[in-house]
Structures are given as structure tokens and as C-alpha cells.
Write a structure and sequence with these properties.
The complex is a heterodimer of chains A (about 325) and B (about 150).
Chain A lengths: L4 H33 L15 H10 L11 H18 L17 H23 L2 H32 L4 H6 L18 H18 L11 H4 L9 H26 L13 H19 L7 H29 L1
Helix pairs in contact in A: 1-2, 1-9, 2-9, 3-4, 3-9, 4-5, 5-7, 5-11, 7-9, 7-11, 9-10
Chain B lengths: L3 H23 L23 E3 L15 H5 L5 E7 L8 E9 L8 H5 L5 E3 L14 E3 H12 L1
Antiparallel strand pairs in B: 1-4, 2-3, 3-5
Classes of the chains: A mainly alpha (about 325), B alpha+beta (about 150).
């Protein structure tokens, strides 16, 4: 692999730009999407169709004082929002956007991504803990139990993918699915995997919604019960970083789903594969995230855990066995 | 295991139904009113502040300066003055000033009810925010003259 300094610099700038633009404009997309679903028009004052809204919000948050309340754990309180951003941006290093756009192709990139996703949870835990606020602590406890519960079915479905592809390298997994949608893991004709893989896909998607703490699984924020959960004591850019971290986690989740199930940068008809197909797929998935958020009301914490332990985990385990049997039989 | 599979089935079905409903709403037209750009028309019984009714032909107020509205007002926010009509064969009084102190008005409508000459009504005005209290001490005679100027 080429190890010149330019490559590192190019990807640093590129990933930061991609992450920054997504973090800013997904907020706008979310508000516009919510407005359309509720038959409003959403932000429309700042710039054309409200396109300058993220800029205005950013300026507002930056110019606000970062208030550190009395009795908080000062250092952790300040570090937590940064820690929410870092894993999300770092994850993008191993995501193969296309055949020749990937910062670093690591052998264990799937494992790295899941390790970083768990770090994001630590940011929520630290933020809630350092705030010294009852709402915040309840919220972090919820976030941890939720993330633990949903990481298991998520990892089990990933194991099925790893068994099919025989690799833990995201690039290899994507390359394995090239050549039209019947090669993608979700519809894979080979060995009859399409029988169960669509269930895997649904499980994985539900888990990634829960892992990113999005509605209807946003137990950590739960405005109606916990004010704003772990973000209660945060204002200005501390809050801004948490929000950006949340949106970046969505982007990473969509990238991962695309790479694992939807064939990465492959074209559905076997022609013109490239980064554009990857972007189309992730933005369709992100739109689905927004669509889901504005459709379902928030669940309760015990229902959320029931869903994981009673339905998703048994299903993903059964799926794992069936996939293994299919690989063995054919 | 009782109801496990049926729960999963009905649950998934209701989730899909929900998604389809929001997807349909997504493509329907906007129903909200874009207020500062679109101004709504008020209902016939809307009570704005009162205004004088001008005569349909001359445009002069119908008011004969009887002062009943002034006496009917519980908040003492109406003050009006008139003078003897001038000219050949003229009779009665002519209105020279009619001032409404809207800061005190409670929109009870006693003035409109007490008027026997069809000279008072509620306006449809509702954009009445201001930084200055003096904006709400309204010269209604000037208002009816302005309306006449707009009409002719």
C-alpha cells in the first residue's frame, strides 16, 4: 500500500469534510423530512429553502458560552462531547467508499468498527456521569444497558456475513458481493442465502437504529421523561458535538449496512460500479432512519430490552445456524 | 411461547402500516399557513378593535354624537366630541373626534351593542403588536377617512 504523506493528508481532509458536511446537513434533512411527514415546510428563512440553517445554528452554538455547572467533574464533562465525535470520525478510516476510495484497508476492520461504536457509548456514559444530574445518570445507565443488549444480535448477524465472505475486511466483504444485486448478501442466490439473509438485514438494521440511540429507541434522550438525558447539562458546542456525533454515528451505521448487506459500491445491474452507488445507498438508508424516527413513538425501556433478548437474539442465533448449515450443505 | 409468533406477525404488520401512512403523508401538499407571507381572512364574528362605519354614499361617519357608546363602555376607553352642524337647514351634530384607548379595551362589545345608528362595528384587524403604547390610542375618525381615501 502507498504510504506517502499526501495520501494521509488527502484522506484526513476528505473524511473531515465528509463528516462535517454530513453532521451539519443531516440536521437540516431531518428537520425538512419531519416537516414533510407532518405536512409543514420546515426551515425556510435562512438561505434558499433554509439551506443556511446549519450554518446559522453552528454560529449560534459556537458563540454561546460553554457553561460548566457547579459540582460537575470538570475534565470528564469537557472531554465527553469530544469523545462522542472521535470514534465516529475514526470509523470512517476503514469504510470502503468505492474500489479505490478507502483510507486504510485493515484486515480486522469489522472488529475495529464495532470497538469504536462501543467507545461512542462510553462518551454518553461519561457525559451523564460527569454532569452529576439525576436525569443524566438514569439516561447513561439506560444507554449502556440498551447498547449491551443490541450489540449481541448485531455481532451475531455480522458473524453470518463473515462466514459467507470468509473475511473480516470490509473491502473483501464488499468485493465478494460484486456483480449485480443477486450477489449482494441480502438477496444472495448462491447457496440459498436469500432465504434467511433478509431477516438478518432487518435484525441488523433494527440494531443499528438502537445502537445509534435513534427514535424509537432514544431511551437515552427521552425528552418527555428525562429532560434531555445525558445532554441535560450541556449547552453551546458541547451539545453541538453530541448532536454531530449522533448524526455521524448514523452515517457510519448506514455505511456499514451498505457494505455488509447491500453490496457496497456495486451497481444493482452489474454495470458502472462506483462511489455514487455507495452514496445513493447510504442516503436511502439515512432517509429510512429519518422516516422511522418520525413514524414511531418512543418505546419503553423494558419493551426495548424484551425486543432484543426475546426476539432479535433468538432469531439471529437461529439465522447463524441456518447460514452455517447452508454453507456446509451446498 | 403463547402468542409469540402472532405478536411478531401483528407487530411487524403494524410497523409497516405506520411507515406506509407517513410515506403517503410525505407526498401530500403542505397544510400549514405561511403566516407572515399568507394573511388569513378572519371569520365574520371576529372581534378586533372597534371602528366607525362610513355612510355608503358620502363616506362620512354615521355617528350622530349621541355619546351612548361612551356611556356604555365599562373601561372608559372611548372619548368623542362633536359640534353643531353648519349650513342651511342642517340639523344635529357632526363628529369632530373619536379616540379609542385600546390599551384599556376588553373587547366586550357594549359600545357596538348600544349604538342605535349603525355607526360602530368590530374591525378585522389582528396584527396589533407594537413596541409603543401610544400606537394603541387610536383616532377612529382618521381611520374612517383613510378608508374613504382608499376607496375613491
Amino acid at each position: 500500500m502507498d504510504t506517502s504523506i499526501w495520501r494521509a493528508l488527502f484522506y484526513l481532509v476528505g473524511i473531515m469534510a465528509f463528516a462535517g458536511l454530513n453532521a451539519a446537513y443531516l440536521g437540516w434533512c431531518e428537520r425538512k423530512g419531519a416537516a414533510r411527514i407532518q405536512r409543514r415546510i420546515g426551515p425556510c428563512e435562512a438561505g434558499w429553502a433554509g439551506l443556511a440553517q446549519p450554518l446559522a445554528d453552528g454560529l449560534k452554538l459556537l458563540s454561546k458560552q460553554l457553561l460548566v455547572p457547579q459540582g460537575v467533574d470538570g475534565i470528564i464533562f469537557r472531554v465527553a462531547p469530544v469523545l462522542a465525535m472521535i470514534p465516529a470520525i475514526t470509523s470512517m478510516v476503514v469504510i470502503p467508499f468505492s474500489g479505490n476510495i478507502e483510507a486504510r484497508a485493515m484486515e480486522l476492520s469489522v472488529l475495529l468498527l464495532f470497538a469504536l461504536a462501543s467507545l461512542g457509548m462510553i462518551a454518553i456514559l461519561l457525559g451523564g456521569w460527569a454532569s452529576g444530574n439525576k436525569y443524566a445518570i438514569i439516561s447513561s445507565a439506560r444507554a449502556v444497558s440498551q447498547n449491551l443488549a443490541y450489540e449481541i444480535p448485531m455481532l451475531v448477524t455480522v458473524i453470518t456475513i463473515v462466514m459467507i465472505s470468509g473475511s473480516m475486511n470490509l473491502r473483501e466483504i464488499a468485493l465478494d458481493q460484486m456483480g449485480g444485486f443477486w450477489h449482494w448478501n441480502i438477496f444472495r442466490l448462491e447457496n440459498g442465502h436469500f432465504l434467511t439473509m433478509w431477516i438478518s438485514f432487518i435484525i441488523f438494521f433494527i440494531c443499528s437504529v438502537a445502537e445509534t440511540n435513534r427514535a424509537p429507541f432514544d431511551m437515552a434522550e427521552a425528552e418527555s421523561e428525562l429532560v434531555a438525558g445525558f445532554m441535560t447539562e450541556y449547552g453551546s458546542m458541547g451539545f453541538g458535538l453530541f448532536m454531530m456525533g449522533e448524526y455521524l454515528n448514523i452515517v457510519v451505521g448506514a455505511c456499514l449496512t451498505t457494505t455488509l448487506f447491500l453490496g457496497g459500491w456495486d451497481c444493482p445491474f452489474g454495470k458502472t460500479p462506483g462511489v455514487w452507488w455507495f452514496l445513493v445507498k447510504i442516503y436511502i438508508l439515512i432517509f429510512t432512519f429519518i422516516w422511522i424516527r418520525w413514524t414511531y413513538p418512543r418505546t419503553q425501556i423494558y419493551r426495548l430490552l424484551n425486543l432484543s433478548w426475546k426476539i432479535l437474539i433468538p432469531f439471529s442465533l437461529a439465522n447463524l445456524l441456518i447460514t452455517a448449515a447452508l454453507i456446509k450443505v451446498f | 411461547m403463547n402468542g409469540y409468533w402472532s405478536d411478531i406477525f401483528t407487530g411487524s404488520k403494524s410497523l409497516v402500516t405506520g411507515l406506509l401512512i407517513t410515506a403517503r403523508e410525505f407526498f401530500k401538499p403542505v397544510v400549514t399557513e405561511q403566516y407572515p407571507y399568507e394573511v388569513p381572512t378572519m371569520t365574520p364574528l371576529f372581534r378586533g378593535h372597534i371602528e366607525l362605519i362610513g355612510n355608503e354614499e358620502t363616506g362620512q361617519p354615521n355617528c350622530v354624537v349621541c355619546g351612548l357608546c361612551q356611556r356604555a363602555c365599562p373601561s372608559i376607553c372611548i372619548s368623542l366630541e362633536g359640534k353643531k352642524a353648519e349650513g342651511e337647514g342642517a340639523k344635529g351634530k357632526v363628529l369632530t373626534s373619536y379616540v379609542l384607548d385600546f390599551t384599556k379595551c376588553s373587547l366586550c362589545g357594549s359600545c357596538v351593542e348600544s349604538c342605535n345608528f349603525n355607526a360602530l362595528r368590530f374591525s378585522k384587524e389582528y396584527n396589533l403588536a407594537s413596541f409603543d403604547k401610544n400606537d394603541f390610542i387610536m383616532d377612529l375618525l382618521k381611520r374612517v377617512e383613510d378608508q374613504n381615501r382608499c376607496k375613491h
